[in-house]
UniProtKB/TrEMBL annotation:
This is Chromate efflux transporter. Keywords: Cell membrane, Membrane, Transmembrane, Transmembrane helix. It is a multi-pass membrane protein. Belongs to the chromate ion transporter (CHR) (TC 2.A.51) family. The chain crosses the membrane at residues 71-95, 107-128, 140-168, 188-207, 219-240, 260-279, 286-309, 321-344, 356-385. One of its GO terms (molecular function) is chromate transmembrane transporter activity. It holds the Pfam family Chromate_transp.
Amino acid sequence: MLQIFIRFFSLGLISFGGPAAHIGYFRQAFVQELAWLDDKRYASFVALSQFMPGPGSSQVGFAIGYHRGGLLGGLAAFIGFTLPSFILLFLFAVTSTQLLDYPVTQGIIHGLKLLAVVVVADAVWIMFNQFCKRKPAILLMLFSVAVILLFPGIWIQFALLILAAVVGRQWLSSTATPAEPTKQRIKLNYLWLSIFALLFVGSTFIVSENISASESGLVSLFSQFYQVGSLVFGGGHVVLPLLQASVGDAMSNDQFLTGYALAQAVPGPMFALAAYLGAEIWIEQPLVGALVATVAIFLPGFLLMLVALKSWHALSARPHITGAIAGVNACVVGFLLAALYNPIFSSAVKDNLDMALVVIGFGLFKVLKPNIFYLVLSFAVAGAVTELI
């Protein structure tokens, strides 16, 4: 367990670049260097993480830890990989009030908000090209953008996800006949499925009461983040619109975007943003709030991985299931595009200079493909300089 923890902790310290980069780091470390598993097994973990809601790269890491050391191994992998970003974002949350008194700090944060525009725009670009190749998928994406911009809210998003799954099942199912589809038996772990379902139903009931976490306690805080973790397909930046819809009432747009911008500047999983948000919401005991929010947002994805780790081949052979997932993926591209406009772009870009920095940054990001660390540093410096002058 200690070996698993140390290996993932060391990766958590240096893993900039988002889920795609994390998956590359994992393959290099655990397939090529350590030979804990082969390429075929690793590819199956990656495929399953794309199939399930939750934080994709963290689910792959959890699966590797589970493969190596059972359930405790999976937990050791999760804690090790997430701990560096958790600590950094928690410290940012508890010191942000004092730090924001300095103009340089305000400039750095503004620069990181502009970087968030670049990063999310790139994510929309990539995900559109990946998930919106067919006309029904494009129409689903456009419809979800329009609805979310007109009627923002987590329940609207939930309804759109269900609609997208139905449309995808009907019009986005693979036309190819899978090999031996009826001979592959699906063996799900119903214990973990029951735990996931009970927590999801309970969290949905609590969230439906429309009581903020600051008023009703840690149960409500857990419920809000658990529900978000249950509904996020695609991981990474896709968590942004659901989080904003879920906890946006508990803090200002500026606070929320500051946390998101800071999450760009630290290594590790994007879902660790929950540490910052939990600490900001539960100000009486920020460490408790950060821990509850972080556990809640990661837990659904891990429970679903445990449900289906032994059945992913059979699940992926069902055309209607893959069609439903294709519809959901197209829908979340729309969610992300709507979030790119509001609150990210509308809150970050204030004048022509900001827009110029975004355009230049996006061009550099797409053409030169610099290391994300250098991009973070560049935008932080640019923000500080523009604030001082």
